[in-house]
Amino acid sequence: STVYLNGEYMPMHEAKISPMDRGFLFGDGIYEVVPCYSGGLVGFGPHMDRMNDGLKAIGIELAMSHEEWKAIALKLDGENDGENLGIYFHVSRGADTKRAHSFPSGVKPTVFAFAFEIPPAPVADKSKANSYSVSTSTDLRWKRCNIKSTALLGNVLHYQKGVDEGNQECILFDVDGFLTEGSSTNAYIVKDGVVITAPLSNALLPGITRFMLLDILRKDGRIKVEERAVSREEFDAADEVWLTSSSKEVGPVVAIDGKPVGNGEIGDVWVVAQQLFSEGKFNY
Ligand code: PLP
User: Fold this and answer.
1) Which structural domain, as residue segments, surrounds residue 18?
2) pLDDT tens digit sequence for 65-111
3) Centroid of ligand 1 to alpha carbon of 198 (angstroms)
4) For residue 160, is it within any domain?
5) Which of 23, 140, 200, 213 has the most CB atoms at less than 10 Å from its CB?
6) With 0-12 CB in 10 A as exposed, 13-18 as middle and 19+ as buried, what is 143?
């Protein structure tokens, strides 16, 4: 496959970075994943805004415009096989000559992008949808989860707990028992027809799918949306539970720690939400 590295396109096996790269040594970088379905990018502007926010938050200076990023995305889409691709963007602080925690001066950020095949976009059809079973855990990550850092060990360990328990995600609760998010997704409950998700804070990633879904639901107006704290008790009593991420879109959860959500089947509110999301997702 063709990848982008520091201004050049090359086959993946020719892309080389230094072992002194701070992305490698410290996880010192920011990343994004943008879906691309038949050439159509989903949420490109918001994804790039979030990446710039992350770079600013960790003090990496990079002068790259949305247009430059988009040209990379479209070039990778054209050069790589597959109708549906995830475009991965990664900026690390760059390679130093020594290993020191302090930011090096005069080092250029490492900029890397590649494309990988993803399944066709989810459809709002209960008989065709992927449904998810999840584990739960106390959220043991750091306190700046709003930054989309490449340092994902905390997320990886939570996700793996889910996998080890035969599930596809792990939903996290803070020490006071309130929902934060999934290890790689944002999380929602539906109760009496109302969609409820944790408010944005440094405890969770401001998901682009979350942003688009809430915006789409509010503009449609049929389904009420609340951004507020969700207790573990409320979570366990939900009629429906959903996950969102760029690749899953709106993912229905049917089991939590081996117990069914509601009647254990995909819910009716999910169908409406995924349908609206499918219709609106290319408008961002
Ligand atoms: N939360 C975490 C921890 C994530 O890693 C992700 C994305 O991979 C999300 C939420 C969902 O974000 P988005 O909708 O922007 O893909």
Assistant:
1) 2-117
2) 999 999 999 999 999 999 999 999 999 999 999 999 999 999 999 99
3) 14
4) yes
5) 213
6) exposed
